[in-house]
Amino acid sequence: MAWLVYACLLVVLLASPASASRSLAVAGGDPTGGFTAVSLSESNFVVQHPYDLPSNARYKFDGGVRQLWVLASDKPHDRQSNTSPRTEIRMTGYDYSSGVWQFEGYGYVPSGTTGVSVMQVFGAGESATTLMLHVYDGALRYYDRQVVEEHIYDRWFRLNVVHDVDASTLAVFVDGVERLRVPGRGGSSHYFKFGVYAQRHASSCMESRWKDIKILKKI
């Protein structure tokens, strides 16, 4: 009977989402395989911050780490905007409308930060974004919906977001493991953003840190 119990346990493990994700990681390898990194300079990193404050009041770039924070009471990034407070970096120079593009970066979200978008693919058909990754109570989520990665607080994680425009699909990898695959949302132009952008039930202070940012394109 022992062999039967073992066999049943093995079937359950292989069918579990975690095991499926591990299999994807092994089968797919490095998510950047087949991609080529584009050339980036500081001019490609445009900081959007509360309009009544200088950028260094909400943004710091030191030792290769970009630290971005915003308060729930802050102004929007533009005097004419009615959006929520944000300190985000808008990647410029590589807006795209076709092909397969990828964002890669190492992120860090300190505990206590919640109700916030930390990364987005901007541009869509009937909404502003094709993808947003939110943090709620220590979990990284697809918008405010399904969990992409649990236990995101207080650790560096590798984030890869692959957008196949022509196939209208997006895949999200955390630490090299595919955690999410969703359909696109249309739109004629897209670009990547990261940082902190207040959402529902935001904490009084929101912060994320980023390093080793890359934009890659499939050739």
From TrEMBL:
<keyword id="KW-0732">Signal</keyword>
<feature type="signal peptide">
    <location>
        <begin position="1"/>
        <end position="20"/>
    </location>
</feature>
<protein>
    <recommendedName>
        <fullName>Alginate lyase 2 domain-containing protein</fullName>
    </recommendedName>
</protein>
<dbReference type="InterPro" id="IPR013320">
    <property type="entry name" value="ConA-like_dom_sf"/>
</dbReference>
<dbReference type="Pfam" id="PF08787">
    <property type="entry name" value="Alginate_lyase2"/>
</dbReference>
<feature type="domain" description="Alginate lyase 2">
    <location>
        <begin position="43"/>
        <end position="215"/>
    </location>
</feature>
<dbReference type="InterPro" id="IPR014895">
    <property type="entry name" value="Alginate_lyase_2"/>
</dbReference>
